[in-house]
Amino acid sequence: MRIAVVALGKIGLPLAVQFADSGHEVIGVDVNADAVASINAGIEPFPGEAELQEKLSALVPAGRLRATTDYSEAIPQADAVVIVVPLFVDDTTWEPDFGWMDAATRSLAEHLTPGTLVSYETTLPVGTTRGRWKPMIEEISGLVEGEDFHVVFSPERVLTGRVFADLRKYPKLIGSLSDEGTRRAREFYEAVLQFDERDDLPQPNGVWDLGSAEASEMAKLAETTYRDVNIGLANQFALFAAANGIDVYRVIEACNSQPYSHIHRPGIAVGGHCIPVYPRLYLATDPDADIVRTARVLNASMPERMVAKAESVLGSLEGLRTVVLGAAYRGGVKETAFSGVFPTVEALRARGAVVTVHDPLYSDDELVAMGFAPHTLGADVDLAIIQTDHAVYRVLAPGQLPGVRLLVDGRNATDAAAWAGTPRLVVGAG
């Protein structure tokens, strides 16, 4: 098959590579000319994705994968177009911002030729595929969905850093607008993906048809919103436990010892492209989902709550030398999307603290570019807040933070014994 992949970011590029590695001709489209040049040179434009460089080094010279900034080079005569363009959410209104996706859809529609399967993999509010993309493509292309082309929603269900493994591990969900679209979508994904055998699923691992685009859209939102709500519940338990001298981690461990409880871990922040964002997309079409809204508000409040807790212990933070440990939203991943570092630093600066940031994955110049003063372990501090559960922080000791008067461990990452004699606050452990 000839396949076009629209947007070659941390999900789109591995998808393009997966399709090419399965024996197909793939052209990727991206607005970033530097990324396109890097891909065409066989060089990964971002680090950290397992197997990516190895596969690029084989596929690009073989002519199986190339990139372009020109839709007219990629879309015409494609058997399938897969769209992985980012969808943003307004921080104030929580409304989805379709700007980039509208632009991408218009561009592909202008060059769409009959017989193409169009698959949206970007997470969307329920009803968007049928209510927004189908009519937009039809109006611009002059083609009729269900006859001249077919649209499917098939959400990505992978984590950066392990995309290829996740593609094999998890069922591929599809939801089309017609029976023929379903047939085409199943045929396509079975040709480009390979699946691990799993005996823990109610049906064989592979392509799972959910019956409609709306059901497929909801499945992606539900599985991710569940995590945010679960973390919100864990944080609520943690706040109560800390106020009552209870170790919430022992409580959670005890609860999860039977199969009906799956309480997640509390923490100072919920970051990344998915968990903080997708509950808002769900709320866009189900505004009465109070439990979802409450959990999202609580999770977003955790950085401020932890800084306030530090203030209650130390008194005024005015002028205190404070380091936030971790800029990344998740340990071991060089990504700051919706990272808790931003609200944590903001809350500290609002109280007059002198704030620096440390992260083993980022250079000083990269931290400065994000608006942070870089910190070197070994420099004097008064207050330290662990925001990311990087491996290096799990062995952190007071000697690496000379003068530290309080450690706020927002991830329960450190060894309590190593901090004996130094005040240490852990989310949910007093």
What is the mean pLDDT? 97
Number of helices: 15
Query: Which structural class do you get from the secondary structure elements?
Result: alpha/beta
- Radius of gyration in whole Å, from Cα? 24 Å
Strands in their spatial order, largest beta sheet: 3-2-1-4-7-8-9-10
How would you describe the shape?
globular
Approximately how much beta-strand content do the residues carry? 5-15%
Spans with pLDDT under 50 lasting ≥5 residues?
none
Ends apart, CA distance between termini = 58 Å
Tally of strands:
15
Task: Give the topology string: H per helix, E per strand.
Answer: EHEHHEHEEEHEHEHEHEHHHHEHEHEHEE
Structure description:
It is a single chain. The protein has 430 residues and is an alpha/beta fold. 40% of the residues lie in helices and 14% in strands. An eight-stranded mixed β-sheet has the order 3-2-1-4-7-8-9-10, with helices on both faces. α1 (12-21) links the parallel β1 (2-6) and β2 (25-29). α1 (12-21) crosses α3 (52-59) and α9 runs parallel beside α12 (290-314). The longest helix is centred in the middle third of the chain and has 31 residues, at 213-243. The radius of gyration is 24 Å and the shape is globular. The termini are far apart. The mean pLDDT is 97.
Key phrases:
430 residues, alpha/beta, eight-stranded mixed beta sheet, five-stranded parallel beta sheet, 15 helices
